[in-house]
Amino acid sequence: MVSLPRVQQRPSRRRRERSADDLRFELGMRSAVDHLAPAAIEASRSHLVIDGRYVRVLGLSDYPRYVHSNWLARLIDFDEPLDLSLHIDPLDSATTVRRLTHKLVELQSSRLLDARSGKIASAEREVAYEDVERLRDALQRGEERVFSVSLYVCLRSGSPAAVDELNRRVETALGGMMASSRAVLFEMLQGLLSCLPAGRDYLGRYRNLDTTSAATMIPFTSSHLSMREGILYGISVHNNSLVIFDPFSRELENANKVVFAKSGAGKSYACKVEALRALMRGVEYYIIDPEDEYGRICENVGGQYIRLSGSSAHHINPFDLGSRSAKDGDAQDALTERLLALQGLFGLMLADKGSSLTQRERGALDRALLETYSQTGITRDPSTHGRPAPVLRDLYDVLRDEGDPLGLADRLERFVDGSLGEIFSSPTSVDLHRPFVVFNIRDLEPELRPLGVYLIADHIWREVRRNRKPRMLLIDEAWSLMQHEEGARFLSSMARQARKYYLGLTTVTQDVEDFLATPEGHTILANSSVQLLMRQDSSTIDAVSHTFRLSAGEREFLLSCRKGEGLFFASGNHIALRIEASPFEHNLATTDPAELEDRAKEATDAVS
After folding, report:
1. Could you tell me the domains of the chain?
2. In Å, how far from its chain's centre is CA 158?
3. Angle, helices 449-466/334-350, rounded to nearest 10 degrees
4. Phi, psi values for residue 343, rounded to 5°
5. Given Cys at both, which of 58, 202, 256, 540 links 190, Cβ 3.0 to 4.6 Å?
6. Claim: this prediction has a pTM higher than 0.70
7. CA distance readout (Å), 45 to 139, 163, 166, 236
8. Quick check: 367 and 376 in contact, CB under 8 A?
9. Exposed, middle or buried by CB within 10 Å (0-12, 13-18, 19+), for 198?
10. Does residue 14 carry a pLDDT above 70?
11. Which of 238, 260, 270, 224 is nearest to 548 (CA)?
12. What letter does residue 316 receive in the DSSP assignment?
């Protein structure tokens, strides 16, 4: 048993002049050492026992000849707690060159002796000669330096058997990297001190490495991603560390995100949990909801719920002019921008699926739009932009008055009369003054959903450009808009410009292969700093693997991961995470029909 006595320094002259009571009082005060030091350490040949925990230190003895960057990642991300201590000390280059030259002379002499005696040259010696010569030349040119490197691994467990098992697993992991370790027998206490944050090496088990080799041992990446501030996205599957990330960090190019997953993988659940946590950080959230999945959250957080349908009182007028901020400095006026946006909307309304309007149709439509605004007194003069905007019926009347030689009015008629007229040809009756806004488009017919998504996203885009503050726009099932040329062009343009207006665009889709097959889809992906891949189907995994350059392990993980798990890509990190929600968040986010049915039954029983 090795007891740890209190460390006392020799008292100074001033301290010696104090009374004995003062000295006794000071010695009785608790210090940081009293809090940090264990009561005792029991040292044996192969381990230490510190407060009931068994500790063993391993020293790396053999290093692999060929390594890659971050080759120690298997130890850094080990699924058991261990400490990795790396000591790097620079050596004098001039002294090293002199010793390498002496070593070259020895090797060359040995080569000459073997040649004179007719012996076959030793392969090991030839390799050593080439390595020494290459390193000496690099040192002389200043391209490399030499470092004295030592690496120790500190293992902790609750029993000797558990330490032996952990030791075996670490040696297996090192063997897979063509390296090996040895326990520091009879030097366990010095090994423990070498693994402490003091940075002192009491064992001295060095290995000389050049700069390039030593750099590969630095843990540049791991399955940890945690910023000081941000949103808790989930828990790392490998080591249970928290994945905390700020999408609006200045270190990122933008706050955009893409979410790819098959149906039932938990993508909507993950987005709901993220929305709740972002809302607590003051980020405004706009959601385009095609399946009415966010209504319960919206009600509980005091958000605004907007439903677009033929019988709804909520309407959005696409002809509204967005007021521009004076800080923008954009040469285009509000009317010109509105005309361009309307061209995209009518491209969705009037063109056949998979095609676009012809140049003649675009020209006729542009003239009719200018005339429609002119009849309400709105021109390119900014002073006229505050007047009431026209509606879709006004454009329809202008096209009819012009004779409609291209049939644009005929195609527009269904959006003006009947139930659709209430949706697309009424003054705007919604605002975005609450921090959480949900647009429900479930009651729109499938062929009209792309129009609804475009209309809503365009309306939000106008509001976003009016004043800058952190906002997120989540478009669920974005492929419904991406499959149309004008819609895809609009979303890709928004993805490129969102950063400028403090907006993060989140696109969610399960049609991964179709999404990635379009140039606009790749544009959105290239302009998204965050990607979340959840469980994939075998029919789409090839496209996903090729696009994201997944390793074989990541590919298999996406094919077999459980609901709520996925790969999180951000800041150069690939992290397998698991979405964990609090009971309150889970109650709001879950869409499990069996669970919701049980809740409804419990509520009915409670009332009766």
Report:
1. 2-91+145-215 (no CATH), 317-427 (1.10.8.730)
2. 36
3. 170
4. -60, -40
5. 202
6. no
7. 41, 14, 17, 36
8. no
9. exposed
10. no
11. 260
12. -
